[in-house]
Amino acid sequence: MAAAAAPRGWQRGEPRALSRAVKLLQRLEEQCRDPRMVTGPPSLRDLLPRTAQLLGEVAKARREAREDPEGPGGADDFLAIYLANLEVKGRQVAELLPPRGKKDVNQDVFREGSRFRRQLAKLALIFSHMHAELSALFPAGKYCGHLYQLTKGSAHIFWRQNCGVRCVLPWAEFQSLLCACHPVEPGPTMQALRSTLDLTCNGHVSVFEFDVFTRLFQPWPTLLRNWQLLAVNHPGYMAFLTYDEVQTRLQAYRDKPGSYIFRPSCTRLGQWAIGYVSSDGSILQTIPLNKPLLQVLLKGQKDGIFLFPDGKKHNPDLTELCRVEPYQRIQVSEDSDSQTCPFCRCEIKGREAVSICQAQERPTEVRTAADGSRDNCHQEAAEQKLGPVIPSAPSLLPEDQFPQGPQDKGWLTLAPLALPRLRPPLPLPKMASVLWEVTSRPRAREEATESS
């Protein structure tokens, strides 16, 4: 029996591309051995060997692959885009770092606050994003992009309905798909959206990058409005900033407690990291868990913690993002065929038929009269001697609204009439008026006493 064909990309020179990428990372790792290199996260000295090891695992898994069912936008296309981008970014890092054996060259890259240092920090962030993306789509080297589950249910539905099993799309195609659901004005706003979404700066959007974006700027119905208020218009937002750079930037506001900035976390993609100046002048950084950023900022503003974004006096009003619009409410109908819970997104284990109708509350006067008949002993004795009473006004309430247990002697027996059931808002005669009229008239009680 003939062996199954290898993946399409493997036949087109993918092994050589993977081998070149691994060798490039190894050369960069040697250049990063200078002790003056930044060791804080993200650290190139840690990322480069880990990425090289993961690419080796990918090469092994691709070599042993029996089939390639992904098609366009699958593993082949992703790796071709990824490896080309890795080569470009690797050469940029190599140009910034001192060549091997020439430590006196490019000294500005080690100077705090220099332009070259900032460029190297941004490239380190991009390498961090690329490693996280490759780990998510190729865990242990095996491709699973077609099975990737986005965190937010609405985002997952959008991707699978519009992109199918593809894990990566060109920016132009993704832009048209997203704008059909969330319109965006062309021009600078569209460019800003692209720079926020394209974490690896390769001109494409992967399912992993879209997952990170939708987690940062949840909820889905106001996704791009949240992005505009939090990322485009908010002075406290900082893109491509590291932990050390946040510490450096807030040093200028040590004498202004309440100053803060926020950025996407590089160690926990999809979550926010907030740096702020505390009341004693110290600089702290925190990652709020399981809460949208706008709720954290509003609570921090109320508590006096987040008052001055990037040291500025004006703190943007984010309350409009907390207003629940009608289209944001979850609606459940018998036509819903989703296999996940609309609240927790867990798999639905079973189904039960439920009928929902408006409850008809028992009139207050009826409950009051019934309670009074138990509490008043003299009134109970009088009603017992009166016997059954047929009210002058018919009762239009269904029989199942009366107590079903054994009747006390103080309860009045009402003779039901065969009348059609009516529903509010039609005016209904009050039965309580009959009870009150019988039990409260002095003449009735006197006649009952004389007859005994």
TrEMBL record:
Residue spans crossing the bilayer: none
E.C. numbers: 2.3.2.27
Zinc found in the keyword field: yes
Region entry Disordered, spans: 387-409
PROSITE patterns: CBL_PTB
GO molecular function, one term: phosphotyrosine residue binding
Catalytic activities: S-ubiquitinyl-[E2 ubiquitin-conjugating enzyme]-L-cysteine + [acceptor protein]-L-lysine = [E2 ubiquitin-conjugating enzyme]-L-cysteine + N(6)-ubiquitinyl-[acceptor protein]-L-lysine
InterPro entries per UniProt: Adaptor_Cbl, Adaptor_Cbl_EF_hand-like, Adaptor_Cbl_N_dom_sf, Adaptor_Cbl_N_hlx, Adaptor_Cbl_SH2-like, Cbl_PTB, EF-hand-dom_pair, SH2_dom_sf
Keywords: Calcium, Metal-binding, Phosphoprotein, SH3-binding, Transferase, Ubl conjugation, Ubl conjugation pathway, Zinc, Zinc-finger
Domain of life where this protein originates: Eukaryota
Job of this protein: E3 ubiquitin-protein ligase which accepts ubiquitin from specific E2 ubiquitin-conjugating enzymes, and transfers it to substrates, generally promoting their degradation by the proteasome.
Record protein name field: E3 ubiquitin-protein ligase CBL
